[in-house]
Amino acid sequence: MLGRPPEPTFPRDVPAFTRALAQHVRDHQGEFDELIRTHASGWSLERIAPLERSILRVGLAELLYGHELPGERAIPPEGAIDEAVETAKRFCGAEAPAFVNGILGAVLRELHGSKT
Fold first, then answer.
1. What distance in Å separates the CA atoms of residue 60 and residue 20, rounded to the nearest whole number?
2. Which letter does DSSP use for residue 74 in this model?
3. For a Cys-Cys bond, which of 16, 24, 36, 83 suits 61, CB 3.0-4.6 Å?
4. At what angle do helices 50-65 and 96-115 cross, to 10 degrees?
5. Cβ atoms within 10 Å of 62's Cβ, excluding its own
6. In this predicted model, what pLDDT tens digit does every residue of 76-115 receive, in sequence order?
7. Taking the domains of the chain in order of start, what are their residue ranges?
8. Which fold has domain 15-115?
9. What is the pLDDT, as a whole number, of residue 35?
């Protein structure tokens, strides 16, 4: 989104879910980037390809704030991870899906650990 507010960037017919997801990514980018840094052992944030960073940020928004997004029910954590991995398979290099899965899976395990 190049640092611009999401509202003027999207056409009018973009669904409310997409708008809310983009806003969550923008609002929580610092938090998401810190989680990526923490779990991307040996990688600086800048070394991660921009598209992979974006996929991770969207995945984290769905994983951590899916219950706040418009829709009939919250996004299941495994569904958020699966969508991010499938997006990485489609648009990124061969190693990206495992990388995305590893980081999002580590965040999910951390969440489960804090709830017990």
1. 14
2. P
3. 24
4. 30
5. 24
6. 999 999 999 999 999 999 999 999 999 999 999 999 887 6
7. 15-115
8. N-utilizing Substance Protein B Homolog; Chain A (1.10.940)
9. 98
